[in-house]
């Protein structure tokens, strides 16, 4: 009944409630059965294509009947709430992706239904994927090794040598660890006969494993009862095997493994960060690495640290501008030479993208029989390489029914309108034939692609939509381990052409249903005494330290702006500048304008407050600083917890403009107070959750330096010799010290006590003295540049400042002295950057730091 809708009466009824359940249970069972029938009512398969929900007879497949039955046990309102909760979780935790060419990220478009595959069917898929991985590894070993396949005529030498993915500097290089491939992926779809076929092989730098992991975490969190009842195979063992396979390629027993990324503007940077955090890898960019004396090292705040293995997520020809693509700014000069020397292992090896090219598909069946001695279990689309005269003649004879695409391009980049066997006009056919005559080797012809369908949720019912399934295999010492699941892309339209992530495409989790009970393997933590105890600091690249430092500074700047706005709204704004141009209100307005939060000092307090809180176009507004902190956080995704992302997202939401016109002062004050609470939550997460041996020092130093600088500025403006009672009250509010002051002094505010509390009191956690003491403590614990006992510049500057503050008297402090302290704090910040961050002169000379380890 292909193409026929599934009528309500065709949906199977759920099992009746037992007599012991009583009338209430029977009613619930009938309601659930009615819900399933309603969801399936009108479900229409696409003509001539297999479907995952229904079999050839139109009946629900057993796996889907079970899934929908469990889902229907939840009331409609609860289901909607679960799905909405999943969307909020994705947004609040920053699970996102970027469409190539776009600057902004999009929330990850996860569908609410999984793709279900029975265990028996999955075993055949896994065997076929593992076989293709072994085959392509053998092909790569030959093409970059002896070259017998081309010499014996099994592969066309012209296609190999002319392929841009054949990287000649890697020819003859034995891959450290013995493998070209550590991760392989295959894009699969069902053919018209229902059998799975390979649309494309992914060997360059396969993406999607991290998104598969996130899909599973989100959906299992949203539907725990259904997930638990369906005996779904777990993903953690696959990731454990993959990490073990990378480690096995290294020389050392406990290797240091890095994930080489192109940076936060990569399409899949969020996925890469998820994987780095989950697998415990160091996430590094090309600028974080250095090749010296044949070794690859990571630039860290503690000096050079040896890198044993790099998991490559950068295109192969970009990894080394010296020997490969000289225009690359993503790679590491000398990396190919380090590979030749066997000093670093890489997964996957540069040049592995060669076997993604379309021309190879025409030869894979014969190669499988030659290299593995067995037929190809998972066939691809039937393909002809037009550079071979015999294949070209066969393709031309049936050209009207075939699709054409470039021979050397991987499948993902080649799906153009003519790649699907669409009707071609006479003019286009003429151009294609002319191109085939001129350069036949540039083209492959293959059977048209039409995708089978799976059910998706459109808000009220199920509809059939085309999908592509990506399956992953990891190389391990024991062989290839196939992930029991994968990464599924589903179109939101009936278009049956292959789909890529972008507008109109959603992802789906893939549930492989076990034949028996599933062992709860939900963690990568090893058992027993496999890992020795250590308390040394973790690896902190200089670039990460830089972003942590500025993450802290921007959060502190946002908090300072929120406090200034709250003070303006707390009554001071009622006095106009014209009436009292030297009053507290005027000073608040002036500092808001000077700090770039408002375009002018003029206007109502509400108007100015709305700008200072929410106008991202004003570079000094609280929202602008919050967005800057989020940009820094984007470089730190693998280091920040989901709780931190949620708190940061909540802070930015609280700072959004309430509407086109400024709201009332009371509503704006409430907005500012909510934002202050969320800023405090972010600070608390750093204080309580970040390991003191990791990046916490740089986050906290950023906040301490910024807080001390801001306090000096506040003291100059509101704590001068002629400060009024209102001025001093505002100063205490800005430094969040009014309660502490009131507990200590009962006679009201006075200049010297207020100055002492906000500037000199070492027991006040908001004072300048307290920030300086904490900064000194952090600097004392960070790695030293020299071992001669002489304090480094940042330490020397801070020691001098600490002495001046300790010897100062509040009543005798001059504005010039406070300004000098502020300048000294700026100098400390610059010295820290020069010492530890990538742009600093000392950081650029890591050979002066610790030795290789």
Automatic annotation (TrEMBL):
<dbReference type="InterPro" id="IPR007296">
    <property type="entry name" value="DUF403"/>
</dbReference>
<dbReference type="InterPro" id="IPR025841">
    <property type="entry name" value="CP_ATPgrasp_2"/>
</dbReference>
<feature type="domain" description="DUF403">
    <location>
        <begin position="540"/>
        <end position="837"/>
    </location>
</feature>
<protein>
    <recommendedName>
        <fullName>DUF403 domain-containing protein</fullName>
    </recommendedName>
</protein>
<dbReference type="Pfam" id="PF04168">
    <property type="entry name" value="Alpha-E"/>
</dbReference>
<dbReference type="InterPro" id="IPR051680">
    <property type="entry name" value="ATP-dep_Glu-Cys_Ligase-2"/>
</dbReference>
<feature type="domain" description="Circularly permuted ATP-grasp type 2">
    <location>
        <begin position="114"/>
        <end position="490"/>
    </location>
</feature>
<dbReference type="Pfam" id="PF14403">
    <property type="entry name" value="CP_ATPgrasp_2"/>
</dbReference>
């Amino acid at each position: 009944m292909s193409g026929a809708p599934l009528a309500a009466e065709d949906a199977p009824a759920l099992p009746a409630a037992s007599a012991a359940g009583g009338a209430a249970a029977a009613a619930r069972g009938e309601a659930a059965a009615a819900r399933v029938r309603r969801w399936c009512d009108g479900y229409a398969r696409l003509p001539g294509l297999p479907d995952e929900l229904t079999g050839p007879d139109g009946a629900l497949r057993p796996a889907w009947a079970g899934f929908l039955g469990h889902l229907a046990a939840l009331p409609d309102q609860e289901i909607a709430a679960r799905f909405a909760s999943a969307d909020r979780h994705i947004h609040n935790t920053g699970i996102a992706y970027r469409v190539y060419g776009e600057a902004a990220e999009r929330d990850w478009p996860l569908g609410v239904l999984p793709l279900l595959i029975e265990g028996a069917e999955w075993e055949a898929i896994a065997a076929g994927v593992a076989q293709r991985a072994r085959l392509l590894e053998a092909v790569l070993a030959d093409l970059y090794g002896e070259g017998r396949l081309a010499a014996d005529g099994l592969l066309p030498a012209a296609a190999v040598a002319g392929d841009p993915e054949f990287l000649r500097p890697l020819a003859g290089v034995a891959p450290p660890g013995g493998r070209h491939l550590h991760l392989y992926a295959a894009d699969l779809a069902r053919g018209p006969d229902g059998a799975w076929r390979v649309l494309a092989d992914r060997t360059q730098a396969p993406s999607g494993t991290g998104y598969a992991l996130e899909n599973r975490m989100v959906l299992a969190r949203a539907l725990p009862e259904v997930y638990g009842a369906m005996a779904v195979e777990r993903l953690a063992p696959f990731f454990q095997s993959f990490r073990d396979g990378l480690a096995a390629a290294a020389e050392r027993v406990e290797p240091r493994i890095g994930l080489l990324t192109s940076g936060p503007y990569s399409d899949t940077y969020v996925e890469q960060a998820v994987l780095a955090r989950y697998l415990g890898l160091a996430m590094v960019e090309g600028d974080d690495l250095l090749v010296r004396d044949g070794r690859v090292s990571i630039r860290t705040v503690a000096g050079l640290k040896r890198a044993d293995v790099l998991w490559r997520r950068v295109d192969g020809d970009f990894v080394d501008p010296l020997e490969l693509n000289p225009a690359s700014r993503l790679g590491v000069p000398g990396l190919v030479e380090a590979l030749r020397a066997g000093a670093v292992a890489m997964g996957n090896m540069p040049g592995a993208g060669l076997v993604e090219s379309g021309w190879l598909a025409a030869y894979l069946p014969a190669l499988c029989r030659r290299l593995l001695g067995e037929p190809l279990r998972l066939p691809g689309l039937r393909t002809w390489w037009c550079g071979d005269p015999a294949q070209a003649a066969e393709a031309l004879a049936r050209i009207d029914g075939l699709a054409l695409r470039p021979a050397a391009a991987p499948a993902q980049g080649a799906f153009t309108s003519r790649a699907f066997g669409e009707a071609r006009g006479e003019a286009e056919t003429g151009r294609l034939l002319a191109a085939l005559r001129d350069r036949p080797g540039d083209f492959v012809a293959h059977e048209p692609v039409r995708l089978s369908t799976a059910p998706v949720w459109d808000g009220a019912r199920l509809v059939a939509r085309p999908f592509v399934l990506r399956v992953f295999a990891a190389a391990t010492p024991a062989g290839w381990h196939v992930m029991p699941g994968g990464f599924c892309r589903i179109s939101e339209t009936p278009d049956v052409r292959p789909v890529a992530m972008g507008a109109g495409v959603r992802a789906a989790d893939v549930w492989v249903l076990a034949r028996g009970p599933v062992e709860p393997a939900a963690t990568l933590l090893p058992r027993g005494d496999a890992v020795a105890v250590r308390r040394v600091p973790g690896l902190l690249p200089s670039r990460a330290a830089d972003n942590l430092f500025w993450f802290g500074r921007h959060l502190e700047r946002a908090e300072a702006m929120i406090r200034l706005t709250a003070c303006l709204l707390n009554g001071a704004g009622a006095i106009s500048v014209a009436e009292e141009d030297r009053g507290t209100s005027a000073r608040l307005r002036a500092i808001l304008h000077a700090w770039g939060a408002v375009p002018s000092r003029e206007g109502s307090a509400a108007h100015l407050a709305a700008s200072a809180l929410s106008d991202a176009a004003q570079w000094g507004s609280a929202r602008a600083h919050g967005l800057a902190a989020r940009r820094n956080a984007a470089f730190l995704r693998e280091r920040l917890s989901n709780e931190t992302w949620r708190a940061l997202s909540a802070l930015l939401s609280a700072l959004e403009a309430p509407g086109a016109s400024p709201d009332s002062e009371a509503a704006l004050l409430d907005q500012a107070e909510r934002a202050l609470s969320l800023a405090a939550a972010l600070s608390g997460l750093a204080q309580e959750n970040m390991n003191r041996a990791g990046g916490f020092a740089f986050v906290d130093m950023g906040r301490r330096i910024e807080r001390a600088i801001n306090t000096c500025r506040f003291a100059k403006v509101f704590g001068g010799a002629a400060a009024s009672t209102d001025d001093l009250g505002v100063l205490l509010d800005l430094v969040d010290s009014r309660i502490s002051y009131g507990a200590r002094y009962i006679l009201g505010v006075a200049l010297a006590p207020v100055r002492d509390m906000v500037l000199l009191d070492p027991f006040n956690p908001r004072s300048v003295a307290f920030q300086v003491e904490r900064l000194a403590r952090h600097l004392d614990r960070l790695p030293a540049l020299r071992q001669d006992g002489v304090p480094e510049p940042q330490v020397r500057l801070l020691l001098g400042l600490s002495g001046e503050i300790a010897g100062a008297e509040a009543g005798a402090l001059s504005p010039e002295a406070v300004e000098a302290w502020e300048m000294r704090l700026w100098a400390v910040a610059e010295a820290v950057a020069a010492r530890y961050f990538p742009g600093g002169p000392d950081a650029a000379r890591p050979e002066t730091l610790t030795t290789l380890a």
